[in-house]
Write a structure and sequence with these properties.
The chain is an alpha/beta fold. 44% of the residues lie in helices and 11% in strands. It is built from 24 helices and 14 strands. The longest helix has 18 residues. 40% of the residues are buried.
Length: 556
């Protein structure tokens, strides 16, 4: 069955190819709009009636027919025709940041470029600047984007591979029932980007190959390693003896930098569990997520009586969007789902006025939304909905509401969503001014990155953390698996400066709330402890905290 995401991508590509070939602008926009609206639908289109699909804004009968074609055949005739007359390399050019269909059309038709490699060569020959509408800045941006694409090749988000990786682990255990078998490597460390899967079993390599080959193509790499074909990314199985299983699991889990710190360990010995290996090194046990070879030994020293947070430590959901801006579900639907899932509160944070593309709230709508929240709080008590907003940080670092509107909210999440091409000094100063705004409670997704798609804007992260410490501003770890921003590697530094971290799903639907899972994994990699987890506060503690912070603003 074709998914909503696949339908969305097909319609979006159709719109882009129409633009590329100079077709009717109105038609191409209708495809872009349909793709955008489908991205907000929480129910599988396959399970919806025509009448229900027709209720999606911007979806008329003509678009319903195209959706039916995709659902029934997995194809769309108009898209097939467009793809037939477009070189594959030209389609790839549209993945480059800053190159929309019209610019790609110019590059293709005027320079005859039909691949990313040809485009890179042209940029290095300074030929892109010869085109109308292109300059040295655009050319450099294109080169930077190409380099990013090359570095990201063959990698996937942890969230994309998680289900397949765990299912294959279960499959291995089913065909090796009498053996110790499990997942290891970067997946066991819960790295946010994965480029290979690694498994381990205490079975002779030839026996393992015989059992695997009934359902997978596999190749012996050396005396202990098998490569398995047929999964999304390169997959390997390490074979060892029963007596060395724990030692091999330990060695294959940690990064090379981490394992280097254990050179004195005798891996030929039998260890009953990994804790024994840490004990042999004179250290307390470290969870697999934290075996990255960076801050861990210092963490063990400074937080000797603590352990990394886990999902039950999160008492409420911060940063969620509703139908008031670009969310799929109403505030009540989001709140009821949070209640049913065991959380104590919801800090609803729709988009602010500047986010016109996301139906950001103008002043009159802020007031109307707050009336709805008041009514819902009366209805749903003791569950509480806090009044928040994701306020855009403008180019000069100011927030996009006057103080008399900002003071109406319980909590302000300040985030950058536009003008992402500033240099380091300007981008840093922009955030510093927002942090210094007394109304800012949380700094949202600090770098604006989209993993494997867009590198974050350059900022001096240490300066940002120091400013948050001075101004008692919380830093968001945006749990969307395409963001996971702030990066986990900065969490130790933030804790060292006394800065709290909020693990926020940035949910645009009830399903999106579950992204808290990926944020928690990233926080555990960074060694976040409860003391520094902002949403470890229960509903009464959160109410008291926000009221105290707000009253301090008016005392100044």
């Amino acid at each position: 069955m074709i998914s909503n995401t696949e339908i969305e991508n097909a319609l979006e590509l159709c719109g882009k190819l129409m633009e590329l070939h100079g077709e009717n602008t109105f038609k191409s926009k209708s495809y872009h709009n349909a793709a955008f609206q489908i991205s907000k639908v929480g129910t599988a289109l396959q399970d919806m009636t025509d009448a229900e699909i027709a209720n999606i804004p911007g979806i008329g009968q003509s678009m319903i027919d195209k959706i039916h074609s995709l659902l029934k055949t997995g194809t769309l005739p108009v898209l097939t025709e467009l793809l037939h007359k477009t070189p594959e390399g030209v389609i790839q050019l549209m993945h480059i940041k800053g190159l929309g269909p019209k610019k790609v059309a110019t590059i293709w038709k005027e320079l005859g470029i039909e691949s990313i490699g040809e485009l890179e060569y042209a940029c290095r020959e300074n030929r892109l600047t010869l085109l109308k509408g292109f300059g040295a800045k655009t050319q450099k941006s294109v080169l930077d984007s190409i380099e990013f694409i090359k570095l990201s090749a063959g990698k996937v988000h942890y969230a994309v591979i998680e289900k397949d990786a765990l299912e294959f682990e279960a499959h291995l255990k089913s065909i090796f029932p009498e053996n110790q078998t499990g997942i290891t490597g970067s997946f066991r460390r819960r790295d946010i980007i994965i480029d290979r899967l690694d498994y381990i079993t205490d079975m002779p390599i030839q026996t393992a190959i015989e059992r695997l080959s009934t359902s997978f193509a596999c190749e012996k790499i050396n005396d202990t390693l098998i490569q398995i074909s047929g999964l999304m990314i390169p997959t390997f199985l390490t074979c060892c003896t029963p007596s060395t299983f724990i030692a091999t699991l330990f060695q294959t889990t940690g990064s090379p930098e981490f394992i280097h710190q254990f050179d004195s360990i005798d891996y030929s010995k039998h260890y009953p569990d990994e804790a024994e290996i840490f004990q042999a090194a004179g250290l307390r046990f470290l969870i697999p997520e934290m075996r990255n070879g960076s801050y861990e030994l210092q963490w063990l020293k400074n937080y000797a009586n603590d352990k990394p947070i886990d999902t039950p430590d999160i008492k409420g959901i911060i940063h969620a969007h509703s139908t008031w801006s670009d969310g799929i579900h109403s505030i009540e639907e989001m709140a009821l789902y949070c209640m049913q899932s065991g959380w104590e509160y919801l800090i609803i944070s729709d988009h602010s006025a500047s986010a016109f593309y996301a139906q950001g709230l103008k002043t009159d709508r802020v007031i109307a939304q707050h009336k709805e929240i008041d009514a819902l709080n009366h209805k749903l008590a003791p569950f509480k909905i806090f009044k928040s907003i994701e306020s855009d940080i403008l180019i000069d670092g100011s927030l996009d509401y006057p103080d008399e509107i900002l003071e109406r909210f319980d909590c302000i999440i300040a985030s950058v969503h536009s003008t992402l091409n500033m240099d380091l000094d300007k981008a840093t100063n922009r955030l510093l001014r927002a942090i210094e705004n007394p109304f800012t409670t949380i700094l949202g997704h600090p770098t604006g990155r989209l993993l494997l798609s867009r590198s974050g804007y350059p900022i001096d992260t240490k300066k940002i953390i120091d400013a948050c410490a001075r101004n008692k501003v919380v830093i968001e770890l945006n749990a969307n698996p395409w963001r996971l921003d702030i990066d986990w590697s900065w969490i130790y530094e933030a804790m060292d400066r006394g800065v709290q971290i909020a693990i926020n799903p940035d949910a645009h639907s009830v399903a999106g709330i579950h992204d808290i899972h990926y944020g928690t994994l990233a926080a555990r990699k960074g060694g976040l402890i409860k003391k520094f987890l902002f949403n470890n506060l229960n509903v009464n503690e959160m109410t008291a905290y926000l009221e105290k912070r707000k009253s301090a603003i008016f005392k100044k």
